[in-house]
Design a protein that fits this description.
single chain, alpha+beta, set domain protein methyltransferase, domain 2, 3 domains, 17 helices, binds S-adenosylmethionine, methyltransferase, Ribosomal lysine N-methyltransferase 4, transferase, SETD3_SETD6_MTase, N-lys_methylase_SETD6
């Protein structure tokens, strides 16, 4: 397809011009291909930026585009690592955890230790300054860099008021703005400040960006990496290539043998920006994937028939709405099936304790001593929170979901922890807690406490599911809050729906176990009554 055919009457807005220049640049790369029955589409009307659509039917296993590895931006292709070898060639730099506590505590040394993430941020900042019109040299990735977004809808960039709309979602504590600030302050700024001639070769002192300008740029590059980068195998690795996925979808790795996921152990990897592959949008049902097998290029392949007008979609992983929003700044109905809610142990323990006080006169002393013993024994580390989620099948080999996701059970680690606590209470508390030896009685206490905790957890959100539904209905009729607030409402509503499903499931199980406990109690009391007559009969005989 001739790119010029996309030009409407010769008047391209900046967005269309960016697409046009980018695609021309991409197609000029040796070895690059772009299927003639596909097109880069302006999807801003549905808040999806650019995407790729099919213009004619596309059969399964069709090569949609080919990306030469040389066009990928990484530590292997940018010249920055050769200009700053002391920064990029530290021992094991790629394997280190960037935010290890010990590192934060250490006095700053130069060069700061880099990791795949910060290395790529430095490279993108370097290439960004080289793609400005004032730069004496020109980044070969300039047409690509110019279409990367400069604004993001990830919560990192939200106002406090927007963040507050997430209400009691655990996402609030995961936004990580402070951590990102610290990372930029300790790993990015020192390298740029120490090497002005590398980053700003022709700038006069007065025109060098300030710390706050660089920090803001580094935040944007970090966010672009989060939403756009791929996790590729290291070029010098002898191992097989990594599965095709984005860097953050670790939980989708390995377990399936479908054609779009390869069952392999983790391999040394490298973060990379992959032009064109990252124009593909994504959903929980998808029709294409990026194949990393070849040492010379990456290919996008269709995994089923794609109809004309249909968007070509990649897969970012089985992410809950909250994670999709945190990493990528969007939500979709299909990802709701993967929603999660964190339930704190504190809340469950509160209701367990109440039940034990009511039923067995648990004292403060026994409660404290039990916890002391758990700590001293050291056999069991009490978890602070548990993740509730539905049971959901993975997409099939054609990228489709074939069954409903259902909330079928509480997390196993939660039931293990409750079981352990009750066992220890029985041990420490003595004969008064004898009944905790009965599995059904334990289960009844457990399910009742969790049910109450789930109800309280739902109440922590400032609105009800019904109120949120109303807000989103009004938004659908053009009468709603901003897109960011709508996404926050979507996330908090999804979590409350999950909490309600969990309450239904736990409530049903509790009914069953209560029926068993009361049946057992009736049997025992019937036996007692029957047994109660026995001695008198014996006495009579005596
Ligand atoms: C790898 S990029 C995909 C290309 C991007 N649309 C663009 O214009 O550059 C990922 C970003 O695309 C957007 N995106 C991806 N899938 C989407 C979807 N199903 N709906 C809305 N936005 C989506 C999000 O903004 C996300 O951060």
């Amino acid at each position: 397809m001739d790119v010029e055919m996309d030009i409407d009457g010769g008047h391209l807005d900046d967005f269309a011009r960016g697409t046009h220049d980018f695609l021309n640049w991409f197609r000029s790369l040796p070895g690059a291909t772009f299927h003639e029955d596909t097109r880069i589409e302006d999807l801003r009307g549905k808040n999806a930026g650019r995407g790729i659509i099919a213009t004619k039917p596309i059969e399964p296993e069709t090569v949609l585009f080919t990306i030469p590895r040389d066009s990928i931006i990484s530590t292997s292709t940018s010249e920055l690592p050769t200009l700053l070898p002391e920064v990029f060639k530290q021992p094991d730099n790629a394997e280190e955890d960037s935010d290890s506590e010990s590192e934060e505590e250490q006095a700053p040394t130069y060069p700061p230790r880099q990791d795949p993430w910060t290395s790529l941020i430095l490279i993108l900042i370097y290439e960004h300054f080289r793609s400005l019109p004032t730069s004496p040299s020109y980044s070969r990735w300039a047409p690509y860099l110019s279409i990367l977004p400069s604004e993001f809808d990830t919560p990192m960039f939200w106002t406090l008021e927007e963040v507050s709309q997430l209400q009691a979602s655990s996402l609030v504590s995961k936004i990580g703005k402070d951590k990102a600030d610290a990372m930029i302050r300790t790993k990015i700024l020192p390298v740029i400040r120490r090497n002005p001639s590398v980053f700003f070769p022709s700038a006069s002192t007065g025109s060098i960006p300030s710390d706050s300008e660089i920090t803001s740029l580094a935040h944007k590059m970090g966010s672009a990496i989060m939403a756009y980068a791929f996790d590729l195998e290291k070029e010098d690795s002898d191992d097989q290539p990594n599965p095709a996925h984005n860097p953050q979808d670790g939980d989708s790795d390995g377990e399936e043998e479908d054609s779009w996921i390869e069952d392999q152990p983790p391999k040394p990897s490298q973060m990379a920006m992959v032009p064109l592959a990252d124009i593909l949008n994504s959903d929980a049902e998808f029709n294409a994937f990026i194949n990393h097998d070849s040492p010379t290029h990456l290919t996008a392949l269709s995994i089923r028939r794609i109809e004309p007008g249909e968007e070509i979609l990649n897969y970012y992983g089985p992410l809950p709405s909250s994670e999709l929003l945190r990493r990528y700044g969007y939500v979709t109905p299909k990802h709701t099936r993967y929603d999660v809610v964190e339930l704190s142990w504190e809340l469950v323990a509160k209701y367990l304790r109440q039940a034990l006080i009511t039923k067995y006169n648990l004292t403060e002393d026994t409660w404290q001593k039990t916890h002391q013993k758990i700590q001293n024994d050291g056999d069991f580390d009490l978890e602070e929170a548990f993740v509730l989620e539905r049971h959901s099948e993975d997409p099939d080999s054609t990228g489709q979901l074939t069954s409903e996701a259902v909330f079928a059970s509480l997390p196993e680690d939660l039931s293990e922890q409750v079981k352990y606590l009750l066992k220890m209470i029985k041990k420490v508390g003595g004969p008064e807690f004898e009944k905790l030896g009965d599995k059904d009685i334990r289960n009844e206490i457990y399910l009742d406490a969790v049910l109450k905790a789930l109800k309280e957890r739902e109440g922590e959100y400032g609105t009800t599911v019904e109120e949120d539904e109303r807000i989103l209905d009004e938004a659908a009729n053009g009468n709603g809050p901003s897109r960011r607030v709508q996404m926050a409402v979507w996330v908090r509503m999804g979590e409350k729906k999950l909490l309600r499903e969990a309450q239904k499931c736990v409530g049903d199980k509790l009914d069953e176990v209560r029926a068993k406990v009361s049946a057992a109690a009736s049997t025992t009391s019937a036996k007692r009554s029957a047994g109660g007559e026995e001695p008198s009969a014996k006495r009579r005989r005596g």
